[in-house]
Fold this sequence. Notes:
Radius of gyration of chain B: 19 Å
Helix content of chain A: 25-40%
Strand order of the largest sheet of chain A: 5-4-3-10-9
Number of domains of chain B: 1
Distance between the termini of chain A: 44 Å
Number of helices of chain B: 14
Shape of chain A: globular
Number of strands of chain A: 10
CATH superfamily of chain B: Aldolase class I
CATH architecture of chain B: Alpha-Beta Barrel
Structural class of chain B: alpha/beta
Oligomer: heterodimer
Largest interface: A-B, 30 and 29 residues
Largest sheet of chain B: 8 strands, parallel, barrel
CATH topology of chain B: TIM Barrel
Distance between the termini of chain B: 32 Å
Strand content of chain B: 5-15%
Number of helices of chain A: 8
CATH topology of chain A: TIM Barrel
Number of domains of chain A: 1
Amino acid sequence: MDALTIGNKKLKSRFFVGTGKFSNDAMVADVLKASGADVVTVALRRMNFKNPEQNILNYISDEHTLMPNTSGARNAEEAVRIARLARAAGCGNWIKIEVISDSKYLLPDNDETLKAVDMLAREGFVALAYMSPDLMAARRMRDAGAEAIMPLGAPIGTNKGLRTKELIQILINEIDLPIVVDAGIGKPSEAAEAMEMGAAAVLVNTALATAGNPVMMAKAFSKAVEAGRLAYLSGTGAVSEYAAPSSPLTGFLR
Amino acid sequence: MSFYNTYIKYTDFPSQSMTDADVLRALAKDSLSENDLLALLSPQAMPHLEEMAQKAKRLTERHFGKTVTLFTPLYLANYCESGCAYCGFSHTNRIRRCMLTYDEVEAEGKAIADMGFSHIIILTGESPSKTPISYIANCAKILKKYVSSIAVEIYSAETEDYKTLIASGVDSFTMFQETYNPELYKKLHPAGIKKDYLYRLDTPERAAKAGMNTVNLGALLGLDDWRKDAFFTALHAKYIQDNYPAVDVAVSLPRIRPHKGSLFVPESVVSDSSLVQIMTALRIFMPRLGITISTRENPEFRNNIIGLGVTKMSAGAKTEVGGHASEEKTEPQFDVSDERGIDEVASAIRSRGYQPVYKDWF
Lengths: 254, 362
């Protein structure tokens, strides 16, 4: 499969996995294995360095690209502080910037995210910006140094699928950065759809964690992401509004 | 601006009796109105408790995952100038009074961290003179070396006081209105700062304004008709969520417990099924609401409600001053029903297919 490169790193998979919400950390290891994922996101707030037995990082092997996230940040300054803590804790220089100042819908705050991207990119972080899909905001984040744009498909945790499809398609068309659909994807078919649209990757957490069998679901998503990517690369046939008649009305003109 | 303006709109609660259809309509919705919440808290919802539980479980798992965060309380002091009729710390109760020295706070912090806790709630009685904000702030600074999240459950204070506490490492706030019924409130709280119903009612808002990450509120269920207090607890939480969207809003659902010297007779008995009704109704009304269940509840009940909406549970709780590092030196505020330590509670959570979360802050 064609490789995706972010921040000069060639990734092994276009399926990114989130690690919150699982019934136990050991399951994360099994899910990761079944998913074939390379990039794994972990909230710094959940990393337990004082109590190594309870540290989720024990279940994530070195083969993975660790992408700490700034969950808990309500503004740019807090996101920057969390990112620096993550780097100081030895979690590398990738950071998924997640700034949320609305605790009801957990929608990202694009203005504060942009400020954080600007500050963290200057500090040498590989900044991936979680955002509400908005073309102008995405352009500004790109200009500020984001390495990838991560628009949400639907509010996080809802499993509602690609509700923001049209807006994500615009980002895919217009932004010359990898577009990673993050949040809202509930089913493998929706992941496949995002990939068919030309998304560079998808990130899934809730749909795996709340599945009856998260490991099997990880496998299903992995195949869907791969299928969607192949479909995108092969060029899907155009969809027409009407059936194409074998005796066309304009046939007499030929 | 005050939650009181919302409260007075509903003083004729419950204005109408609910029907089975009202309950079913509420259950079918994604976004519930106040009237839908009344339906779910009504007696007519009881036959639908299983459906409520199923929906609450789905929503909780979707928004919080299969996780329950663990915390433990640390009582810094039990000096009190209030005379709450139902409380073991009431100034009219002849009990030993004391407060932890900073060295003792250090020892408690270390002991609590060694047990595996990373989230604590620090408590005092209602005594700004004996336990001023500066003392609580200093305690927080000491404890922050050992834990990641510190909540305060203290007397009502000013916005500036909460800012001081936040600057000292406090991130979360808890306050109980006890009851939203102003007449009953007045009767039960005859002395101290707590006497002032409105000042207390607006306290969670002052904490939100100060920038607390989490604002946790609640009523002591059983003091008044629990349906009313559960309803106003939810409305109060929604008021904070609507006006301070950056705040994580949470509620605690304590039922009144016996304590030393108690002659207090609760107004209504909150049965296990009533508590489940409250918890699931609130979850359905506010899918992202944090819900805390303390060790006032017994182990069996606590095990059974994992998955129904609860997001936070205490363990290894002591309700006397200190108690984690030292021997008991005061009477407890109330008797805990669940005396299990962190490991036992964690393994009970695991056995229900959930993950005990030890750390979820910085």
